[in-house]
Amino acid sequence: MRLYVTGGTGLVGSNVIRLARQRGIEVIASQYGPLPEWAVDYQLDPLDLADHDGIRRSIRKYKPDVVIHAAAILDQIVMDTQRELCWSLMVDGTRALAEACREVEARLVFVSSDWVFDGRADIVDETSPPCPVNFYGVMKVASERELGAMDGLNYAVGRLAGIYGLNYAAPSLLRKENGLGFDFSVYVIHRLAAGLPAVVWTGPKVNDEAHPTLASDCADMLLRLAQHDGNGGRVDTGSSIFHCFGSECVNRIDLAHQIAAAFDADPSLIMPARTDQSVLDEMRHIGIPYRTRASTKRTAKALGRRAFNVKEGLAAFRQEWDEFWA
Ligand SMILES: NC(=O)c1ccc[n+]([C@@H]2O[C@H](COP(=O)([O-])OP(=O)(O)OC[C@H]3O[C@@H](n4cnc5c(N)ncnc54)[C@H](OP(=O)(O)O)[C@@H]3O)[C@@H](O)[C@H]2O)c1
Question: FRET label pair with 150: which of 41, 108, 114, 208, CA 20 to 30 Å apart?
Answer without folding.
Answer: 114
